[in-house]
Every structure is written in C-alpha cells, then in structure tokens.
Write a structure and sequence with these properties.
Elements: E1 4-5, H1 10-16, E2 19-20, E3 24-29, H2 32-48, E4 53-57, E5 71-75, H3 82-96, E6 101-106, H4 111-114, H5 117-133, E7 137-143, H6 149-158, E8 161-168, E9 171-179, E10 191-194, E11 197-200, H7 204-212, H8 223-233, H9 239-254, H10 259-267, H11 270-277, E12 280-281, H12 288-301, E13 318-320, H13 322-331, H14 335-341, H15 351-358, H16 365-378, E14 383-389, E15 405-408, H17 414-430, H18 435-443, E16 453-459, E17 463-465, E18 468-470, E19 473-478, E20 495-500, H19 504-507, E21 516-519, E22 541-546, E23 551-556, H20 557-562, E24 574-575, H21 577-585, E25 595-596, H22 600-605, H23 608-623, E26 627-637, E27 640-650, E28 673-676, E29 679-680, E30 684-694, H24 696-700, H25 704-720, E31 726-731, E32 733-734, E33 742-743, H26 747-750, E34 755-759, H27 775-782, E35 786-790, E36 798-799, H28 802-805, E37 825-838, E38 843-846
Parallel strand pairs: 3-7, 3-8, 4-5, 4-6, 6-7, 12-13, 30-31, 31-34, 32-33, 34-35
Antiparallel strand pairs: 1-2, 8-9, 9-10, 10-11, 13-16, 14-15, 14-16, 17-18, 18-22, 19-20, 19-26, 20-21, 22-23, 24-25, 26-27, 28-36, 28-38, 29-35, 30-37, 37-38
Helix pairs in contact: 3-5, 5-6, 5-13, 9-11, 10-12, 15-17, 16-17
C-alpha cells in the first residue's frame, strides 16, 4: 500500500487524503509569508518523522527556514542562467537520493534573474519529474496574478498537487485545484484552516463571499514582454534613465559584461535595442552572430559624414531567442539526457543520441504560431536560417563553420514552406552536437559553458536570374592581411575573398575552383599563386538557389552570368575569347558565351574595393582589433551598389611577432624547405620535434577510400604527438573534401599541429590553396598554426623530402595496423630542426 505523508496539518491531511511520496506541491500565494506558514508545519513534521529535509535557497525574499542542523540548505545562484541553475539543482537532487523532502523558494523570484515566465515553466518541467522519480516530496510557491496562463498551465500539467492559498482577515484558506489520484466529495471546495482543524466551505453563500474578496485579473503577459513594454515609456525620459534601461535590456538580449557588450553600449541607443527586441521570436539572447552583424552595421551607419549609408542594403532580420532552444529540449523530454551529455564522462558518449533526437523534435503550439507569422512576413523570398550561439563570433572564439546554416528557398505551399523552415531550425539545433563543434568547445575549455543556441533568420540578398536566385557577388573581407606574399603588400589595407553568386564558395574549400583573392591596397595585383592559366585558376561554378527545384544548387558559371540582366556582365567577368573561337571552330552553336571570372573591371574601375577597404578599416578601428566580415553586393552600375554585411567577428591573429633572422643558405647547404613568400603566421622561430610527410607519388595512386584512410591515420598520429612540436607536410590542400585535390582531414584531426605545408605538384594535379577567409583559414589562425605553400620547382623554392624520409619511419611504433600506410606516411623524429620565417622579408627556411 502506498505510504501516506503528513502536511503537518492533520485536518488538511484528511481533506486531501494526505501527501504521497513523489508529490510535488505547488502553493499559489499572494505573499511569501503565507507560503512560509504552510512550510513550517510541513518541515517540523518531517523532522519529527526523521526525514531528510533540504532547503533550496535562491530567492530574493527572506529565508523561509532558520539555520538548523536538521535542515540541509543549498544556495543556488539563479544569475548563472537557466541551464546552469537547472543543471546544479538537478545534480543536488541526484546527490541527495530518494525519499528526501524539499522546500524551494518562490519560483516567481526567478523572474528577477531570468525575466522570463517561459523559463520558469521550463525549470519546473525538468525539476518536477525527477523529484517524482526519486519518490521525494517537494514544496514550491508561485505568486498569484504574476505569471502567464500558459506558465500556470504547464505547472498544473506537471505537478501532482496544486493549491491556492488565500489569507483574508488573518484567516488561511486553501483551495485545492489539483490533487493527483485522490478524490473526495468535498476535496475541491475551499477550506478554512485553523490550527489543525479544517472546515470545508460548501455553502454557496460562504463560498461567494470568500471569492468576491479575491483579486483575479485577466491574462498576464510574459514578464519579459512586460519589461520591454515598460521600457518604451523610458524613451521620453532623461538620458540617465534611458541608459540604465538600455543596459538592462542589452544584458537580456546580448549577454553580460564583455568587450562586445561595451561596444554595443557605446553605439546602440534604447530605441535601437527596442527595435531589435521587436523582431525577436520568443525570449532570451539573440546570440553572437546577430550581435556582431548588428554592431558592424551600426558602426558603419554612424561613420563620419554618413560615408557608408548610401551603400548599405537595408536588413530586416529576425532573431529566434535562445529560450526557444531550451524550451524545445525541455518539452520534448530530453533535459535529463542533456544534463548527462554536459558531463565530462557523457560529453561525447551521449552527443550522437541527443543529436538524433533533436532532428525529430516538435515545437510547442504557441512557438509554431510565431514561426508561421515570421514566414508570412517573408512571403516567398528566400531566407537563410543561421546559428547564433551565445559564444559565437566573439573575441577569442569565432566558431567559424562549426554550426550549421541552412538556406530555405521558401517555395511551395505555406505548409511545405513551414515544414522546411522547422527542419532548418532543427538542423541548426542538432549541429550543437556535431563532432567538430564538440571538439572545438572541448579544446578551448568551453565544454561546460552555457552555450545557448539562438538563431538568426535573414532574407537572402540577391534577385531572380532565370530559374535561380543569387546576389551578384559575395565574399569574406579581412581588415588585416595575414597572408603577405609580396614585400609591397600593405597588411593593414586588408584583403577580400570574392566570388560570383552566393558566398558559400568564399567560406568553404571548394572543389577544383578558385575564389578571387584581392589585396585592397592594390586590388588588381595578381593573385598569390603562380597562375599562368587564368581560366584554370578562376571560378567555374556558382552557388545559387534553384527556384524551380526549391533547393540549394551549383550551376556552371557561364550559365549563371548568361541570365544576369540588370547590370553589365563585364563588371564581373571578361570574355574568354580563346574558348569562344575554339567552340566556333568545332562547330558548337547556341552555347553560353564563355567568360573568365577575373572581376577586372569591378576591381579597377569601380569604387567597390575602396568602399570595402574603408568599411573594414572603420569597423576594425572601433573594435581596436582586426575583423572578419561576410558580405554580399548587388550592382546597378560600377559605382551604384548595395552592400549587405551579413556577419562580422573579430579576426583571431597574433600579429607579426618578434623579428627573426632567417639564414641565407648557399646552394650546397642542405635544407628541408626554403621558400620566398607563400606563408602565413607571422615571424616565427619554431623548434620542430616531429615531421609527418605524405609521399606524393604513393598518395596519388591510392583509391579515394584509401586516401580517406590516410587522413584518419594522420588524425591519430596528430593526437599521439599533440604534446610535441609537430610539422605536417602533404600534397595539395589539407582539409579538402575531395581526395584528388589533397588530404581530406577534418580540421579537428590536425588541430594539434604547430605548422602545416601544402606541396604543389602541377604534373600530378596537386595545387595548394590557402582559401583565405574560409572557415579552414579561420581555424588555422585561431589555433595558431603556421601555414606554408611549397611550389616545388619554382624560383627561390627548395623542397627535399629525403631530408626527412632518410630518417627512420616511426609510423609502426604506435600500432602495427598502420603497416599498410608505411609507404605513404613517413613519421620522423628530428633533432635540432627549426622552422624560421620572416614575414617582412618574405623568407622561410626549415632545416
């Protein structure tokens, strides 16, 4: 038979047929003192019955219980945020075990830290079932006429016992609203409690007199929205009041004190913050990517003489608050799994399971309605759903490419468009459990940080061209040029990585394709590699959105530009006369006119490069730090265009470093690598302990499957040697997704290396490409990895693999199963080897 437990008031025990182990008891009160009147007899009875009693203290109100050896008190800081608070409470409940009796402070007091009814409901939803599971009894309180109906409904749905407590003329009345699995003919009447005696108020005259004196009001807005509504009233008040209100709202939308917070405080007004809040779906933080984009745009708008305003495309983004992410996790019943995954033991163990669940989750009805309204706003305009986590795009941690962004072409019926939008949000949420994101957070000591995922929803910049949608150009811009291959390059002028069409080809290492690298001091300067064949080393494909097929697609560059109708095409590409004559000779007709995407006219005759240079410099000056931006641009003519700054973050860089002396070698002096230019990472003098080199000839003839196998082994070796100074040398591009172009390692597999070199072999089809501005580039810079390209056979370049391969191959010392790769991978421990580079003189020697 189920064990009954006393409330400490015997008459009330009879009224509700006592409490049961597993009960969560919620008291709805007007004043905290009224709740305390019910807590004291419950605790005294529990102590008399030799129960373990725990008081969870977090409220702003006076303590409910005096310090006592009979009661264990835990003080939990609600200011750590929902996840930290809920996780700490979960773990203390886990440690206290079964059949413990709990008293919690008033849940309403959490509003002073979270400002969100939604999150109070979420906390109760994750806490209550766990207490029930451990056969505890827990007392909670909420203040009447403060919370939304939906919050009360979620609490009523989850708790076992819900009680209204009224105090009128010093008399206590309890009105049970829910008593799970118990019933009596008088249970749900109001009851007058006098000491241990309870009188049921069944007469209509008494009941009506009682309730006529009780203040019941209409539906309350979420406290979050109440706060922002009140803030609008401060727009007409003095500057000091406005600034105080602004900083409070900023802390709710953008996080606590940080360098980014200070910059936002410097540039945003209260009106700006209220405008941002008006475009938020749900509540909580809008995330680092949104903040970075908004701040950069504001900096440019406020520049002297309105210098940049004519060039800025208007934006009408929306922000899905981080609280929606938590609500999604909680309401689908995955909170306990998330808590397990947040531990060191479960960090990788439970990530895959959680990721798979997130991809199948459902959203609450009220959130769905807000999503519908957002989509109705955009109509059938293509949109992009982008991650905007709390830590993303901030000083020190860029998270470049670690989380997903999903294009929604946004075609079809409203139902089809809505389903695609929901799927995109789930995909972004699930990407928090991707391997690279997990590794990134772990390696930067962020695995236990509160990484809240908000979402930035942006209208895709561009127009319809034939059956496709894309902007004229897009790319990545850096205010500081970290890859100086010519002594005349001005590092401070910056650099951009430019593509025609969507900017995905500017941030990813594309297959057999090349973005245009532009040094902004001399935009028409030839690119960094030896490119005798301009056609070969240009852009061949264009990323676009297929309107007909309702999906992201890649099309041939000539086909894409053939449909451009609103601006002269030669702004972006030059006629490929050689190919045109060849096609004519061969008798081809009705073929698209062939072009070479060199952007020559754009870079030489338009104001675009100067505007980009000045924009980057303006933002970097305010940041007092180099910056990395993503942009699109659409043109009417060479000097009339609109730039859309879609992202901005601090560019991680260590600068030049101390000057070093690079030895001048005679031809008779041996060395491993010597090159003039084509390296990045500042001045360096690096002692090398181990070198891992991949034999180009052996690698060339491997199958794609075996090349992937080589990449996995490189990852293992890199982890084994992570405490050593490690140099990796391989053919073509490290980190490519195409094995024929290089070594398809994931960045997490080479992140422990101190330096990497990409070796060119024109005969064998391997060509280095730094992919300046790509996510791979950002990872190299953030991880402080020195990069070099070796153009073997070119003037001022020496490369002698035998310098390393003459040393014993240590590959098999870790595992005999590596035997099949011993002719491909050579691992050597070297003595007294140094990598020395002077970025100013553009000289490098490794010997």
């Amino acid at each position: 038979m189920e064990l009954k437990v006393s409330t400490g008031i015997s008459g009330f025990d009879r009224t509700i047929d006592s409490l049961r182990l597993g009960d969560n008891v919620v008291w709805q009160v007007d004043y905290i003192e009224n709740y305390r009147d019910m807590v004291i007899p419950f605790v005294n009875q529990a102590i008399a019955d030799n129960r373990k009693v725990v008081y969870v203290r977090f409220g702003d109100h006076p303590p409910l219980l005096e310090q006592s050896s009979d009661v264990v008190t835990y003080e939990v800081d609600a200011n750590m945020g929902f996840e930290g608070f809920a996780t700490e409470v979960h773990r203390l409940i886990e440690n206290e075990g079964t059949k413990t009796f709990y008293v919690f402070d008033s849940l309403t007091d959490l509003l002073s830290s979270w400002y969100s009814d939604l999150m109070i409901g979420n906390f109760f939803r994750v806490c209550c079932p766990y207490l029930y599971e451990l056969h505890t009894i827990a007392y909670f309180a909420i203040h009447r006429n403060v919370h939304t109906y939906s919050t009360i409904a979620r609490i009523r749905e989850t708790t076992q016992v819900l009680l209204d407590l009224y105090v009128l003329e010093d008399k206590h009345y309890v009105h049970p609203l829910k008593v799970w699995q118990r019933y009596s003919p008088t249970m749900f009447f109001p009851h007058l409690i006098e000491d241990h005696h309870v009188k049921s108020i069944t007469a209509s005259s008494e009941a009506s007199e009682l309730f006529s004196n009780i203040n019941r009001v209409e539906e309350k807005m979420d406290y979050w929205h109440v706060l922002f509504a009140r803030a609008k009233e401060d727009l007409d008040k003095d500057r000091q009041t406005q600034e105080k209100t602004k900083r409070l709202l900023m802390s709710l939308l953008m996080g606590g004190n940080s360098r980014m917070f200070e910059l936002c405080d410097q540039y945003f007004t209260l009106h700006d913050i209220l405008q941002i809040a008006s475009r938020e779906v749900g509540t909580g933080f809008i995330g680092g990517k949104s903040v970075g984009m908004l701040l950069a745009r504001k900096i440019l708008k406020e520049a002297e003489n309105d210098r940049f305003r004519p060039y800025l495309e208007a934006h009408d983004s929306f922000y899905i608050g981080s609280d929606i992410f938590y609500t999604f996790i909680v309401q689908n019943g995955w909170w306990k799994l998330r808590v397990k995954q947040k531990t060191k033991e479960g960090y990788y163990k439970y990530a895959k399971e959680l990721r798979e669940k997130i991809l199948t989750g459902t959203f609450p009805a009220n959130i769905k309605e807000q999503f519908v309204q957002l989509l109705e706003y955009f109509g059938q305009s293509p949109i992009i759903v982008r991650s905007s986590s709390l830590l993303e795009d901030n000083f020190g941690n860029a998270f470049a490419g670690k989380y997903e962004s999903v294009f929604c072409v946004n075609q079809g019926t409203p139902e089809e468009r809505y389903q695609a939008f929901e799927d995109a949000i789930r995909t972004v949420y699930a990407s928090t459990m991707n391997e690279e994101a997990l590794e990134y957070r772990m390696n930067r000591g962020l695995f236990d940080k509160d990484e809240q995922m908000a979402i930035l929803v942006q209208r895709v910049s561009g127009d319809h061209y034939g059956d496709h949608f894309f902007p004229h150009i897009a790319g990545v811009g850096n205010s500081s040029n970290l890859y100086v291959w010519d002594q005349n390059v001005d590092m401070d002028a910056g650099m951009i990585r430019l593509v025609f069409g969507l900017g995905t080809r500017a941030v990813d290492r594309t297959v057999d394709d090349y973005a245009r690298i532009v040094t902004l001091d001399q935009p028409t300067r030839k690119p960094l590699m030896h490119m005798d064949d301009a056609k070969k080393f240009s852009q061949h494909g264009v990323d676009a959105l297929s309107i007909r097929n309702n999906q992201f697609s890649s099309i041939k560059a000539d086909d894409a530009i053939a449909h451009v109708w609103d601006v002269e095409r030669d702004l972006f590409a030059s006629l490929d006369t050689e190919t045109m004559f060849r096609l004519k000779e061969l008798g081809y007709k009705n073929m698209p006119t062939p072009y070479i995407f060199d952007f020559h006219k754009l870079l030489k005759h338009s104001s675009f490069p100067n505007v980009m240079r000045d924009m980057l410099a303006e933002i970097a000056t305010v940041y007092e730090y180099p910056v990395d931006v993503e942009f699109t641009a659409n043109f009417q003519n060479k000097d009339e265009f609109k730039l859309n700054l879609v992202q901005c973050r601090p560019l991680q860089t260590k600068g030049l470093g101390q000057s070093v002396q690079v030895p001048d070698l005679t031809p008779s002096e041996s060395c491993f690598i010597q090159t003039a230019g084509h390296f990045m990472g500042g001045n360096i003098r690096l002692p090398v302990d181990y070198v891992v080199i991949i034999d180009i000839n052996e690698y060339l003839y491997l199958s794609d499957q075996d090349k992937h196998g080589v990449a996995r082994q490189i990852g293992q070796i890199s982890r084994y040697l992570k405490e050593e100074n490690l140099l990796l040398v391989g053919p073509g591009r490290w980190g490519t997704s195409t094995p024929s172009l290089g070594v398809p390692v994931h960045f997490t597999e080479i992140q422990h290396a101190d330096a990497i070199f990409e070796v060119a072999s024109e005969k064998k089809g391997f060509s280095p490409e730094l992919s300046y501005g790509s996510h791979f580039f950002q990872d190299i810079v953030e991880s402080d990895i020195f990069y070099g390209a070796v153009f073997d056979g070119h003037e001022e370049v020496r490369y002698d693999p035998s310098y390393i391969t003459n040393e014993p191959n240590l590959l098999l010392q870790w595992d005999e199963k590596y035997h099949e790769w011993k002719h491909v991978i050579h691992v050597a421990q070297v003595q007294s080897m140094e990598l020395v580079a002077d970025i100013v003189r553009q000289k490098l020697v490794c010997r």
